[in-house]
Design a protein that fits this description.
- With 152 residues, this protein is an all-alpha fold.
- 79% of the residues lie in helices and 0% in strands.
- The protein has helices at 3-60, 64-84, 91-109, 127-148.
- The radius of gyration is 26 Å and the shape is rod-shaped.
Length: 152
C-alpha cells in the first residue's frame, strides 16, 4: 500500500466521521431548541400576565401612574410576543392573546378618566372598576393561553 492510498483512506474516514458527527449533533440539538422555544414562549406569557396583575393591584391601591406603567409594559411585551412567538401558538390561542391586548388597550384608554370623585349614584360604574375588570379579563385570557402551552 502506498503512502498516497493510506492518506486517502484517512481523509475519507475523517470526512465520513465528520458527516456522521454533524448529523448526530443536528438531530440531537433540534429537540433541545424546540424545548427552549417553548420555555421562552411560556416565560413571555407569564411576564405579560404578571404585569397585568401588577396593574390590577395598582388600581386597587389607587396608584394610577403605576397601573398605567404596568399596562403599557404588558402591551409592549405582547407586541414583542406577537412579532416573535405568536406563530408558535394554535390559532385559537393566538386569538386570545390578541383579545387580551385589546382589553389592555381599552383599560389604558380609561386611564385619563381616573381618579374620579365619588359619584352621587353609587351604582354608576367608575373608570377604575372598568379598567380593573378589563385587566382581569386580559389576565384570565393570558392564563388560559399559558396553561394551553405545552411545558418544555
Amino acid at each position: 500500500m502506498t503512502k498516497g492510498r493510506l492518506a486517502a483512506y484517512f481523509a475519507g474516514t475523517a470526512v465520513v466521521a465528520a458527516l456522521i458527527g454533524f448529523l448526530f449533533g443536528y438531530y440531537q440539538a433540534y429537540p433541545a431548541q424546540h424545548t427552549a422555544n417553548r420555555a421562552l414562549l411560556r416565560l413571555r406569557l407569564s411576564e405579560a400576565r404578571a404585569r397585568t396583575q401588577d396593574a390590577r393591584i395598582a388600581l386597587v391601591r389607587s396608584n394610577y401612574g403605576n397601573a398605567r406603567t404596568h399596562v403599557e409594559e404588558a402591551m409592549r411585551l405582547l407586541d414583542a410576543f406577537k412579532t416573535s412567538s405568536q406563530r408558535d401558538l394554535p390559532a385559537t390561542e393566538s386569538g386570545k392573546v390578541d383579545q387580551a391586548r385589546t382589553l389592555l388597550q381599552d383599560a389604558l384608554a380609561l386611564a385619563p378618566a381616573m381618579p374620579t370623585p365619588p359619584a352621587a349614584d353609587p351604582a354608576a360604574p367608575r373608570p377604575e372598576a372598568e379598567a380593573d375588570a378589563k385587566a382581569a379579563q386580559a389576565a384570565n385570557l393570558l392564563g388560559e393561553v399559558y396553561r394551553a402551552t405545552p411545558e418544555p
